[in-house]
Design goal:
- Keywords: Metal-binding, Zinc, Zinc-finger.
- InterPro entries: Znf_MYND (IPR002893).
- It comes from Lasiosphaeris hirsuta.
- This is MYND-type domain-containing protein.
- One of its GO terms (molecular function) is zinc ion binding.
- This protein has a two-stranded antiparallel ribbon with strand order 1-2.
- Helices cover 52% and strands 2% of the residues.
- It is mainly α.
- It is built from 7 helices and 2 strands; from the N terminus they run E-E-H-H-H-H-H-H-H.
- The radius of gyration is 20 Å and the shape is flat.
Length: 187
């Protein structure tokens, strides 16, 4: 990959808005390799926009509470009509990760995945297996540790699926700065 000087004019790909080029020659040279990823990112982004707009516009009924993004937080997967949105959001984040070694893209994907976990605490898409690797790629070791501890530590009264926002907050605040060993059976 060609390095850019600080004075190089950089512009984003018009399709995906994720990959940056120092000029049209560079973009033309990369087009064949980038096309599939670009198309996937653009398509999933458009589909996600449609899915979210549909959920926001829909009035509440017996299948979907009004304002599902605010009134369904934590139980999104339990609301059948929100599952397509969750799958599409996962696909959008996954498509971003196909862009090679870009920190901004990894952060954007992580933001999508963390928001999915906020909406669906039961983690039906197994994001707890993906998020730790992204945190490490971003050199966020303490958040990595906090995340692993949150998803591997339970007690008799509280299971992972029943964590309330307060329980999550308590776990993150009370985590010691020095990591303690995790039991192999919990990993």
């Amino acid at each position: 990959m060609r390095r850019l000087s600080k004075k190089s004019p950089v512009s984003a790909c018009g399709g995906c808005n994720v990959v940056f080029y120092c000029g049209t020659a560079h973009q033309s040279h990369d087009r064949k390799e980038h096309r599939a990823t670009c198309t996937k990112i653009k398509a999933t982004r458009e589909k996600l926009g449609y899915e979210e707009a549909t959920l926001w516009a829909r009035p509440g009924d017996f299948m979907l509470p009004a304002g599902a993004f605010t009134n369904g937080v934590g139980n999104f997967w339990g609301i059948l009509d929100t599952r397509d949105n969750m799958r599409t959001r996962f696909a959008a984040a996954d498509a971003l990760l196909k862009v090679d070694n870009d920190i901004v893209v990894v952060k954007d994907s992580l933001d999508h995945f963390m928001d999915i976990l906020r909406l669906c605490r039961s983690d039906n898409l197994s994001l707890r297996e993906i998020v730790p690797g992204l945190l490490l790629r971003l050199d966020r070791e303490q958040e990595f540790y906090d995340f692993i501890k949150l998803w591997t530590t339970t007690d008799d009264e509280v299971t992972i699926m029943d964590y309330t926002a307060r329980a999550i907050q308590h776990c993150l605040i009370s985590t010691p700065a020095v990591p303690m060993p995790l039991s192999p059976s919990k990993i």
